[in-house]
Amino acid sequence: MNMFYRSAAAPLCLGVVLLAMAGISACSKKDHKSSGGTTSDTTATGTELSAADEDSLKYLMYRNMQVDINDIGDNQDLPAYYWYKSVPTLDPHSSIYPNADTLLNVMRQYAINATTGNPYDKYSFLDRDSSISTELEDGKVEATKAVEGDFGIQVVFAADNNNDVHTLVEYADKNSPAGKAGLTRGTELISVNGITDFSSVTNRESVWNAFYSGNATVSLITQQFGSSVQSSITLSAAAYNINPILFDTIYNTTQGNVGYFVFYTFTNTYNSAGSPTLTKQLLDAEIGKLKSANINNLIVDLRNNGGGAVATAEYLDSALAPSSAAGKTMYWTTYNDKLNAAIGVSGNGDETKFPSSTGGLSLDHIFFIVNDGTASAAELTMNNLKPYMDVKLVGDTTYGKPVGFIGASLRAHRNGKEIYLADLYAINFETKNSLLQGGYFTGIVPDQLAQDYVDVPFGNADYDENLLDIFNYINTGRFTTNGRQVTPLQQSGRVKQSSLNTHIKSLRFNGMINFRAKQLK
């Protein structure tokens, strides 16, 4: 019998300013996989540079963030970093910074959020193998030097009411090796490379390494939700096209049809060549299904969606918004004061509008299921819709990231050759909706708190507490509070939240990137 476990855990007018970035950078690359949970997005990846190249990287990174976004040798005073004013003058060549990541971590500590007393910037990072652009902009997981693709699975540790630790699938991309093997949310991993005891930190770290350290294969014994049958499978890492929709269905209720789909990453709607991506095709098909079903309520499941391309957030908002939003302000974008002045941004910021016609849905309510892994472009999507329709959030407080990246590819020149160093993702802009609501650095608090039992499959309206609360609202006009009716199966899994995922690594990027600056070149 399955237990119910609680998870532990208008286009930018950047003009000449960004066009000149081609000399040291290529704008807009993708969201980064965090190696330390959602506490930081700063992680070095890829091969090590020589001492001379690492020194160049420190210099170019500091120049981009604090001195000159273009770095074309004319001593412009155009820093790219959103919080550049808070950072004192530093010597990027100093030996106290052994590498660029150390320097970046120091720079991130200076802008302090007065409300929390902590640094604003828990986001900026270096991507040293340039893998983000392919994954987010082109929607592909491709080969690296070490391994062909990945397994396409997010695993999580959870405890039952006896405090026994279990390993479960939080989600798996349908096109990935894990998805094709039938693994999905709620699948329990009884054994991972022979490890069956997940109570120790050492064993849990070994499990994470099995999935996320570039291994070519991983051997599993699995058990599906509601079944006692165990199966042995071996996953082989592979390249694949990302499918951001994990699950969808239509519920037929006494209050009309209710649509539901799970969207786990904001891969771009158009790739680097300007062609429509699989993401666009799937979103178009999904909206078509919802319209054909004549739904009057919609549930969008954004649990563990760390964000991605701004353009996809805009595309989804345009499809979901009511006709009354057509042609009106979707959101405002602001940069630091010097970039704002250079590119002519004033007042509320750079305005992005809804298109002249929206997607054609007519919704009484739109519900978003969220948790602490819901971030950035996912938060932007919800915030943009709030001024125009009844938006309800159910689940847990979101991650908190109302800021985003443009991206810069830093390169040095040696002996007449250009040498790639790293892609820099330092915070460049902040967004607010049409009512100037934003600033959710500590996350967006949901309208209704609900537990996330990670062994309950997507769409299970009998046992998913989030869905139970939403359907109660649809039927009665209020969320469930005290006295929620639960089955003995659910009660068996109502356990204390554990801190088992201290070394959690997100399969997909956490952040928000605007790729259109690249398209202006």
Account of the 3D structure:
- The structure is a single chain.
- The protein has helices at residues 15-19, 51-66, 100-107, 131-137, 177-180, 201-212, 278-292, 310-320, 337-342, 377-385, 465-476, 488-491, 516-519, and strands at 6-7, 125-127, 140-141, 153-159, 165-172, 188-192, 217-223, 230-236, 240-241, 245-253, 256-263, 297-301, 307-309, 329-334, 350-353, 365-370, 391-395, 403-404, 408-414, 417-425, 429-433, 448-449, 511-513.
- The chain has 521 residues and is of the alpha+beta class.
- It has 3 domains: 51-115, no CATH class; 146-236, Roll (Pdz3 Domain), CATH 2.30.42.10; 242-520, Alpha-Beta Complex (2-enoyl-CoA Hydratase, Chain A, domain 1), CATH 3.90.226.10.
- Strand 16, helix 10 (377-385) and strand 17 form a beta-alpha-beta unit.
- It starts with 5 loop residues before the first strand and ends with a helix.
- The model is unreliable at 1-46 and 486-498 (pLDDT under 50).
Helix content: 10-25%
Q: Say what the CATH topology of the largest domain is.
A: 2-enoyl-CoA Hydratase, Chain A, domain 1
CATH superfamily of the largest domain: 2-enoyl-CoA Hydratase, Chain A, domain 1
Q: Strand share of the residues?
A: 15-25%
> How many domains make up the coordinates?
3
Q: Termini, distance in Å?
A: 57 Å
Write down the overall geometry: globular
Question: In the CATH classification, which architecture of the largest domain applies?
Answer: Alpha-Beta Complex
Q: The biggest beta sheet, please?
A: 6 strands, mixed
Which class do the helix and strand fractions yield? Answer: alpha+beta
C-alpha Rg (nearest Å) = 23 Å
Count of alpha and pi helical runs: 13
Q: Count the strands?
A: 23
| Level-1 CATH class name of the largest domain | Alpha Beta
- Strands of the widest sheet, in order across it, are 10-11-12-16-17-22
What is the residue-averaged pLDDT?
A: 85
